[in-house]
UniProtKB/TrEMBL annotation:
Stated name of the protein: Rad50/SbcC-type AAA domain-containing protein
Family annotation (SUPFAM superfamilies): P-loop containing nucleoside triphosphate hydrolases
GO biological process, one term: DNA synthesis involved in DNA repair
InterPro entries assigned to the protein according to its UniProt record, in alphabetical order: P-loop_NTPase (IPR027417)
Amino acid sequence: MKIRKLSVDGFRGLPDREFSLIDPRSDAAFSLVLVTGPRASGKTSFLDAIIAAKEQVGPYGPEQPASSLVRLDATAAKVRVDWELSNAERERFGIGKRSLLSESIFGGSVMPPPTPDPALEALLSTYDPDPTLGKVEYFHAARRLALGTTIDLSRTAGDAFDRMTRLGRDDIKYAPLLRFIVEAGLGLDVNADGTPKAPGRVSAAFEALCPTKRIAGLYRSGDAMLPAFLDAQNRAYSLAQLSDSEIDALLFAATFVRAGVNESLVLIDTPEKHLGGGDARELVLALTRLGHDNQLIVATRSEPLLASVHSDQVIRLG
């Protein structure tokens, strides 16, 4: 799934405006869209509007209170989204049209929001790690892979708690990642029928995103198994010795693999948080190649990243 157009009215932090995410040369949604502007111009709010609209149509978790979504000078907010479906999604739901519209209303409107298309509702409410099923992933600006935390070993990818936390800003959604990396390293990452998945998927994804380290197996620390890393000179590093940018790359890599991110909408806030501008550009371009036929919508102020794409791919706020 991808977004072709986003129209907002009365939404907190954003001007009343329609935003096009369409490549005029192909009339298809861009696979990479950058949202930029000065501080407090609405970059994060742009991502929030997408999440709010999606959740009202097909929720993963509890709906946000309307008071947090409506601009102070408005009585209600409206978000209209033109969703572009992949060929596989159209075939799965028997949809002849290339795209479907949704309209979400928050706040003091006397009219309820229009009833969404049942196929679109089913599509947007599905969160499944099956890589053939599209989904929505959100990497918030303050994301952090917490080290040394206790992990609930009963949690699996795609369970109810996993689904409910996907679009929030609580780092608890990343808590299962270390267990997943270890399981993958031990060959315990299996399909629903119990057959092993292809080995080395997390390692390959991490190396695609991180030019400075590679996963070199597992080591035991007390009662725990943890991933070990090597640099270009084959010097060994523990997880705790990685830099913040390397931890961030590991977070992205493990999430993409664990969640089966293909034909999905991926929202990323501030990819440059631990990186220089050129490195942020390389990270985002590597993320566009991780997975198949995704759409990345990225809130950023990285000038090298902004300069690396066509001007039509940049939405400027403020």
